[in-house]
Amino acid sequence: MENFFFELFESLPRQGVGDDDSTRRAFRKLTGLPECPVILDVGCGTGRQTLVLAELSKAKITALDNHQPFIDALQRNANQNGYGDRIRCVVADMDSMSFPKEAFDVIWSEGAIFIVGFENALRAWRPLLRSGGYLVVSELVWFAKEAPQEIRDFFQGHYPDMKFYQDIHPMIESAGYRMIDYFQLPDESWWTDYYTPAEKNLAEIRHRHQNNTDAQAFFDAFQMEMDMHRKYSRYYGYGFYMMQKQSV
Question: C-alpha dihedral over 214, 218, 224, 225, to 10 degrees?
Answer without folding.
Answer: 160
